[in-house]
Amino acid sequence: MAPRPAPTTGETTAETISAAWREESARLIGALTRMTRDLDLAEDLAQDALVSALEQWPTHGIPANPGAWLMTTAKRRAVDTFRRAETLRRKTEELGHALSEEDGMPDLTSQVDFIDDDVLRLIFLSCHPQLTPESRAALTLRLVGGLTTAEIARGFLAAESAMGQRISRAKKTLSEVRAEFELPVGEERSARLEDVMAVIYLIFNEGYTATAGDDWMRPELTNEAIRLARMLAELMPDEPEVHGLQALLELQASRGPARVDAEGRPVLLEDQDRGLWDALLVRRGLAALERAERLAASGTPVGRYYLQAAIASCHARAATPEETNWRAIANLYDVLAEAAPGPVVEVNRAVAHGRASGPKAGLAVLDRLPEGALAGSHLLPSVRADLLARAGRHGAAAASFREAAALTRNASERALLLGRAEASEKAASPSS
């Protein structure tokens, strides 16, 4: 028998448990759902394994393979659960045979097959057509993204209790319709693909610019979203939009190291040190975009993810902000506005036209938005403020920056907006 790991400090153990849970929870719940066919039970078993780790690791030491330990513990709890239920004896035997009789901790790969497919199955299950779009996103963020109910509620600007009820109702609906924990095929898979991509993009965005809290970014979520996008591209290699999504996420994530300064404060795109951009992610993103372009050239239609990736590639190919081809970006946003119309696209289109043709052109795009568009969001006033500042209307810009700062729920972003408001006020002062 291998020697028992040496006990570690409580702080080190707690950090390791937290990291292991962030890394393994989606795989754990996915694998357990496949084995038990019961989403609620899978969540309970995963949580039981986490509690066991909190109880045992501080005393017995951190196992060599934390993920394997969590999986094996959860599966043993599953066996115990089925043994207590006489009507599920058959499942007890099936699960029991899967466990090693040895005292040593088995390797994770010998315990769980198709671990990546299990996570992908979990995403498709969370995007079941019987659920509303809001419930699909919330459930996937909970099960796959690892967000707490409170974090999801902030992202949707909803009460935590209401979001908890939404997630509970979603799981109950899946149980009532006897949703299958299998990857859909044929037309059903294609029909559900758009929702799956939207959820992966939502997870990425929550990590890329956190909706609330003190941190500007949550890298664990962006990394998870990229991993899921790559898996989806492997599953559906003939879909250009899937490769477009992968390209978009990787190209945007490549800017991560330059998006905050040494003190963790946000750095705007035009002020970033592009030498800090992740060159590997840029290459991978451009390669994924090329795959999407080849498929599109054969007549397969493309959509908003491919177009957004093409926009991101314009930034990635510019060595300096001055070399950015804003005219090409503005043209791409015009196409995107037709393919996927909406106020967020219009706001970003205003930015592009403001850079390509001057701030008045950008403000003209914003002025055409319907009254009440993006009410409650900081996005519109922050972009308006930037365009006003570029047009030399510093007093109006300061007011818009402060309006945006009051609306954002992210502390880092609020500080950035207030700083720009102060700069605009100084520029507007007669003594400046």
UniProtKB/TrEMBL annotation:
Keywords: Sigma factor, Transcription, Transcription regulation. It comes from the Bacteria. Coiled coil: none annotated. Residues 122-174 form the RNA polymerase sigma factor 70 region 4 type domain. GO terms for molecular function: DNA binding; sigma factor activity. Residues 25-85 form the RNA polymerase sigma-70 region domain. One of its GO terms (biological process) is DNA-templated transcription initiation. Residues 192-292 form the DUF6596 domain. InterPro entries: DUF6596, RNA_pol_sigma-70_dom, RNA_pol_sigma70_r2, RNA_pol_sigma70_r4_t2, RNA_pol_sigma_r2, RNA_pol_sigma_r3/r4-like, WH-like_DNA-bd_sf. It holds the Pfam family DUF6596. NCBIfam families: sigma70-ECF. Belongs to the sigma-70 factor family. ECF subfamily. This is RNA polymerase sigma factor. It comes from Nocardioides antri.
